[in-house]
Amino acid sequence: MKITVENIKGLNKDIRVFIDKETMNSYMDKKYDEIKSTVNLKGFRPGKVPKEILKRQFGKAVFGEVLDKVLKETSTKALEENKIKPAGQPKLDLKTYGEDKDLEYILSVTELPKVEIKSLENIKFDEYSVKIDAIETDKRLKEIAKNQPNFKEVSADTKAKKGDLVSLDYKATVDGKDFKGSEGKNTQLTLGKDLFLKGFDEQLIGVKKDDEKIIEATLPENFPEKELVNKKAKFSCKILNVKQPEEIKIDDNFAKNLGAKDLKDLKNLISKQINDEFKNSLDQLSKNQILREIEKIKVDEIPENLIEEEVKILSQGMPEDEVKKNKNNFENKARTRIKTGLILNEFGEKNQIKVTEQEIQAEVQKQLRMMPGQEKMVMDFYQKNPSALASLRGTVYEEKILNLIKEKGKANKKEISKEDAEKILKEAHEESHDHSHENEKNVTKNKQTTKSTKEKKSAVKKVKSKPSVKKAKKVSKK
Q1: Which is higher by pLDDT, 109 or 373?
Q2: 180: left (phi > 0), else alpha (psi -120 to 50), else beta?
Q3: Strands, E, within 132-278: which ranges?
Q4: pLDDT of 460 strictly over 60
């Protein structure tokens, strides 16, 4: 095989590949030997069909498969030997080919630019940790206790008030008639929460144990019996008991009921929980800072084909005239994203960062936990959309790269209070919102924006090194 690199123009170049007919014939002979034992032809025993007969019967199909295989193997080898990483899919132009002929083709490639990553090891960023004081922990502890009320039964002549727990049996009618679901036994309502029917709770204020009371309430829009929606129902209620909330004693027993060893252990867990609530958001600020520093790194030339692809993604669903008007804005944004992706990808490859299937599944499980009740829908989405799973892999890959850059970089460590953390995150959110709003104004120029949702893509782009070749029809083995 002879490989020649020609027509070098910046990142664009042609790779001419020549394979003599003797080598091609040896590939053909090997393929005939493979199929000889499996082909059944009338008048010949299995494995005894002469090669000339096989050529007449299956020559075109065999050549198609051999050509497909040779093109894939040799084009990959040509790229690897010349240490070329293509930006996008190379174009393949067959010059000479055929049975008992030399094979010659040209691979037109746009190469990924060389990028500098040494400076990433000295990149500077702020790394925050939140100091949680005892007052903040105690405040959260009291909130937890308040949300887990303990009720005690009161004397028979005590009237129910807001915040009390009332237990009752009821039987309801509409226009004097029973309906499906019109009876309830030992129904418990915390007065003031209005969780049953609107206005029902407040009519129970003042009731005592063993009281009987008629309560009127309107059946809601989502009531199962559609013909009764918005109709007034009368509820004949029998009050079983009234309980008042009792302040929970925050002690070791309380802590143990919540799964902690003791009260000290519970306070430590709460402090960690508060810290963790800020950790992810503050870590993301650090990573955004790193990404902004990466954007400052110079890359001499960005492949035009990648810019075109990125512009299509950024402008997806927008009217064509709006895309043309904002072409420069889109191209600049595309260049920044591609440059960042190239640098991150180079750093990932140099540090041999890989994404395992276990890490992908862990990320899927994390998303399932974030969408309770919709687990099946999420799983179906990833099973039916391999591209979404590939995008998820890219996100995990990028996250691992940024984590390693953080480890190698120079962190300016800052311990801040909870109030400072809230302020920093609020300012970052407002800055991000203003920036997004400004981008929207630039793109739409005060016209109606499209409602299409753009697929969020990872900045890291996987490099394809194998050109695709249309597969030839396979040999029948019948």
Answers
A1: 109
A2: beta
A3: 150-153, 165-173, 183-190, 212-218, 232-246
A4: no
